[in-house]
Specification:
- The protein contains two helices and no strands.
- It is mainly alpha-helical.
- The chain has one domain.
- The longest helix has 35 residues.
């Protein structure tokens, strides 16, 4: 499946809303896993954005 272009602004906003940090031990196990899942989506989008940038760069090199 191909995703729409993932912008730097989107990644920055999601990174602020769902930062990569250690879990708060005062939270329930369920809440810790929920937050980990949220962050997992951000990490997935970061990886997909890197792939998109690599593909765009490769395509530009091949065109020239």
């Amino acid at each position: 499946m191909s995703l729409p272009v993932i912008t730097d602004e989107l990644i920055e906003a999601l990174d602020q809303v769902f930062p990569n940090r250690h879990p708060d031990l005062s939270l329930s196990d369920r809440e810790v896993w929920y937050r980990a899942g949220q962050r997992s989506v951000v990490d997935y989008l970061i990886e997909q954005q890197l792939r998109q940038k690599e593909t765009m760069l490769t395509n530009r090199v091949l065109e020239n």
